[in-house]
Amino acid sequence: MYILISFRNQIAVGPSSQSGKPKEFESIFRISRKTFDYICSLVGEELKTKPSNFTDLSGEPLSLNDQVAVALRRLNSGKSLTSIGESFKISQSTVSHVTWRFVEAMEERGISHLYWPSDEAEIGQIKSKFEKIRGLPNCCGAIDTTHILMNLSNVDGSNDVWYDREKNCSMVLQVIVDPDLRFRDIITGWPGKLSDATILKSSGFYGLAEEGKRLNGKKASLFEGTELREYIVGDSGFPLLPWLLTPFKGKARAQTEDHRARFNRRHFATRIVAQRALARLKEMWKMIGGVMWMPDRNKLPRIIFVCCLLHNIIIDLEDEVQDEMVLSHEHDAGYRQQVCDLAVSEGSLIREKLSLYLSGKLPP
């Protein structure tokens, strides 16, 4: 508690060049002072337009830095309102209100950090980085889902929809990720009872892709007369579509390793970026990484969304503190792989041709 109280005094000093004990700062927030200052500048105007009377227990007003510090600590520690309040010498209700005001401000001011690239040069860089992983050409993203766990009342029958296949209460987050672990598209708020395929079909991205308004850019030439459209990759829980390539099912033939098995290895190495991004999200923002106690299910999707924005901001600012985090791909411990049997024939043909091409069984 002493560290956090003394830290509150430290963050009120001013610009990062004047602040002391940077390692103490980074150990508490796991971001650099530069990133903290940027977040303050991002939400400052929004917070100031809505005057508040937030004070600590001694009646001293909370500064902008104080409010951002409280909200970030609440989100990245996952600790209770009581614990955060004791650390900063403020009431539980103040912690709750300050955090929610920060979430609202980030929704308004941080949205520019989450977008699907429309610039040809930017999407070209994404494709190039994906291809360098294991050779998949013209890939634009990796899709995956994770479960945000909740502890809900057993008495309320309306909570049954939140029970997922593993008998946990959860809310699903679906993300599409680029090679730098940046979220490019997200959807959340759906109950854990729903399958990955169902949530995908309910997403705006699915509708846009089906209408030809996403993944409709420059095609790649595989060999004479055959072009490969833009696509994303996902695991077997998703349907196989012309714009969403999933792995081949089944095992390779005995004593041989066919082109399908080799494709699956390339595919896994490419799509693992989505797993790593989700693992980092939950490790960094522990409020959504643990089991949430009786959360407001109307507010939770917005909290998840803001955590995704903060995840992207850290990447966009090239925050070196993140480099010290262990890179994991485990984000849904205890969850079995879902399997979707839907396979559109055009998607099957595209995947087969691509796997043959990558194995050198078709003319280059």
TrEMBL record:
GO molecular function: hydrolase activity; metal ion binding; nuclease activity
PANTHER family referenced in this protein's UniProt entry, alphabetically: EXPRESSED PROTEIN, PTHR22930
Compartment list: Nucleus
Pfam families: DDE_Tnp_4
Main location as per UniProt: nucleus
Protein name listed in UniProt: DDE Tnp4 domain-containing protein
Family: Belongs to the HARBI1 family.
Keyword Transmembrane (UniProt): no
Keywords of this entry: Hydrolase, Metal-binding, Nuclease, Nucleus
InterPro entries found in the cross-reference section: HARBI1-like (IPR045249), HARBI1_dom (IPR027806)
Gene Ontology cellular component list: nucleus
Keyword Amino-acid biosynthesis: no
Cofactor list: a divalent metal cation
